[in-house]
Amino acid sequence: MQHPTLAVLLLAGLSCQNLSHSEDETEIALADLPQAVRDAALAAVPGIVLEEAARETEDGATVYCLEGEAGGKDYELEITADGKVLEVESEDDEDGEADDGEDADGESED
Fold first, then answer.
1. What whole-number distance in Å separates Cα of residue 13 and Cα of residue 59?
2. 49 in Cβ contact with 42 (< 8 Å)
3. pLDDT tens figures, 30-89
4. Alpha helices, DSSP H only, in the chain?
5. How far apart are CA 101 and CA 108, in angstroms?
6. Cβ distance 28 to 54 under 8 Å?
7. What domains are defined for the chain?
8. What is the CA radius of gyration of the chain?
9. pLDDT for residue 91
10. Alpha-carbon distance 69 to 49, whole Å?
């Protein structure tokens, strides 16, 4: 069974994959991230080390797309300029498998 949240995110097209490939996305330096965005990322994924950032406009609002790593997993986040977390996606969300040897349903892969 797939995670319904993942299906909704995929259907909604909210992912920030390939930060520099969207026409309205602009890659920005991590130092240029608003403090509210940085704080929201750290609250959403404790210990995240941000690696890339981009700024885009969605429905007239500025949204920051971030990529980073925490606990050996890669993460992608979408956060509004005022610090509201819109999406958090981890590497196991993309392939539907958990890191503990079980599939996304919690069943053994044997």
1. 13
2. no
3. 999 999 999 999 999 999 999 999 999 988 999 999 999 999 999 999 999 999 999 999
4. 4-12, 35-44, 91-95
5. 7
6. yes
7. 4-95 (3.10.450.360)
8. 15
9. 84
10. 5
